[in-house]
UniProtKB/TrEMBL annotation:
It comes from the Bacteria. This is Cell division protein ZapA. It comes from Halopseudomonas litoralis. Keywords: Cell cycle, Cell division, Coiled coil. Signal peptide: none annotated. GO terms for biological process: cell division.
Amino acid sequence: MSDIQVISLLGQDYSFRIAADEAVLFQQAADLLQQKLADTKARHHGSGHTELLVATALSLCVPLVRQTEQLQDAEQRLADLVGMLESPIDR
């Protein structure tokens, strides 16, 4: 079952059909987005809505890119460790 969730961003309402079991997660994401938009708006006085949305989206993507890089590095280290454990040890 899904519900309609409405969020207001920069004076515009947006409706989303959200699965009932994801409603809390959606609200948390909407709250985070609204806070990031407010932060961006405070730093970029006079910017239009589109510029604010783009700047906010980029600020949210930077940590995701970093996390992806860290995850890939960790996966490579694990693969290297597994490879070391699987290869015969010279004695």
